Amino acid sequence: MSGQIVTRFAPSPTGYLHIGGARTALFNWLYARGRGGKFLLRIEDTDRARSNPEATAAILRGLEWLGLDYDGEVVSQAAGAARHAEVAHQMLAEGNAYKCFSTQEEIEAFRESARAENRSTLFQSPWRDADPSTFPDEPFVIRLKTATIGSTLIHDEVQGDVTIRNDQLDDMILLRSDGTPVYMLAVVVDDHDMGVTHVIRGDDHLNNAARQIGIYVAMGWNVPVWAHIPLIHGPDGKKLSKRHGALGVEEYQAMGYPAAGMRNYLTRLGWSHGNDEFFDDSQAKEWFDLSGINKSPARLDFKKLENLCGQHIAVTEDAALLHEIQAYLAAAEKSPLTGNQQDGILRAMYCLKDRAKMFPELLEKAEFILSSPPLSMDEKAAKTLDPVSRGILRALTPQLQTVSWTKDELEAVLNRVADENGTKFGKLAGPLRAALAGRTVTPSVFDMMLVLGRDETILRLTQAAAYEGS
């Protein structure tokens, strides 16, 4: 297939952007972006009863968080109803579709009889080859005239060649009796009109492809390249559901996963490039291809997700990381960082990024810079501030007044004070962490002192030396 590659993501606006849908969007985005193609977005809102604008907004927010930009305007499938109907009438005029006047009761009676006689319940309309002069003046649907012999071949880039016998396919309805188009027709017309060259979607649509090919053939249109990707399963190998944890991508943002880590993980979920686990967007766009997609369902692995997220946090530029942390706080409905807190986080980022896998973890490590004295002590920190430790802090404070504020000099002073008090620096670290952060799990004592500066460090040590408990 020559010319520009065009992919699309076409969710139904009936809820949030599901993690499986997000991966489908990502695969389409990567395939198009890596080949100078277009990635389009269509909202399949033909089911007016179940579609709602809040769901559309949630899908758009999810795509924005994941960084999946699309080309042009968002296409509404419902807005194209007249065009879809026009195509159905063209097929009717050219003999590739027919009017069917069978009622629901007649169709059900046909199926009951077929079940009783142990034959196929696939409805065979008596109107398929009827003489127009016999048509009653009643409502009708328009059905596709599906081939009755031979088979339909779906050449799929993931599943391989899939053959479906034509006698297994019914004459599907194209237009309902009220003149409205069905989803299966709308999808094909929209994909054709939007110039979609590659349909990359979940393998739950594989059977739909056989029926949709009938419309392409009837209209003389090019059939797109198909790639039906397996669904995502939970860690237990069962279909992904609420019991496995979050399903919507916005929930992952609100839990504090970085978008780059999520993109990396979802790309690797059911696709591989050698042994590469960690990669950035430019590598993903360059490497991603349809042949690397696995045929079997992928399993969600939260440990792997967190490890990749930690690696992305470690290499992300500080200002970009701060921007994403603010977005996380908004998504989690937490208070935003003040200007001073942002400045402090930026100063401390070099010692916060290390080994933080998610934003709550990073902010937990940043508590020493986000808090103002007097610090409230957690239970473990308070226990370390016994009379002996407070005495050592009192002895240390004057020696910090004149020392050069570098890691080597601070280390020398702390080791000397510990030695003079008959202890090791390791024993002094706990009380120092309590004094500087009000807790015992923190970045290194030296990093905190360097970030806080001389005056703030001495103030906190002085207050901790006077700490009497609460």
UniProtKB/TrEMBL annotation:
One of its GO terms (cellular component) is cytosol. NCBIfam families: gltX_bact. It is found in: Cytoplasm. GO terms for biological process: glutamyl-tRNA aminoacylation. The keyword ATP-binding applies. This is Glutamate--tRNA ligase. The gene is gltX. Transmembrane segments: none annotated. Keywords: Aminoacyl-tRNA synthetase, ATP-binding, Cytoplasm, Ligase, Nucleotide-binding, Protein biosynthesis. A motif ('KMSKS' region) lies at residues 239-243. Its EC number is 6.1.1.17. InterPro entries: aa-tRNA-synth_I_cd-bd (IPR045462), aa-tRNA-synth_I_codon-bd_sub2 (IPR020751), aa-tRNA-synth_I_CS (IPR001412), aa_tRNA-synth_I_cd-bd_sf (IPR008925), Glu-tRNA-ligase_bac/mito (IPR004527), Glu/Gln-tRNA-synth (IPR000924), Glu/Gln-tRNA-synth_Ib_cat-dom (IPR020058), GluQ/Sye (IPR049940). Belongs to the class-I aminoacyl-tRNA synthetase family. Glutamate--tRNA ligase type 1 subfamily. Residues 329-464 form the Aminoacyl-tRNA synthetase class I anticodon-binding domain. Its main location: cytoplasm. Residues 4-306 form the Glutamyl/glutaminyl-tRNA synthetase class Ib catalytic domain. It comes from the Bacteria. A motif ('HIGH' region) lies at residues 11-21. The keyword Cell wall biogenesis/degradation does not apply. Catalyzes the attachment of glutamate to tRNA(Glu) in a two-step reaction: glutamate is first activated by ATP to form Glu-AMP and then transferred to the acceptor end of tRNA(Glu). Monomer. ATP binds at residue 242. One of its GO terms (molecular function) is glutamate-tRNA ligase activity. It catalyses: tRNA(Glu) + L-glutamate + ATP = L-glutamyl-tRNA(Glu) + AMP + diphosphate.
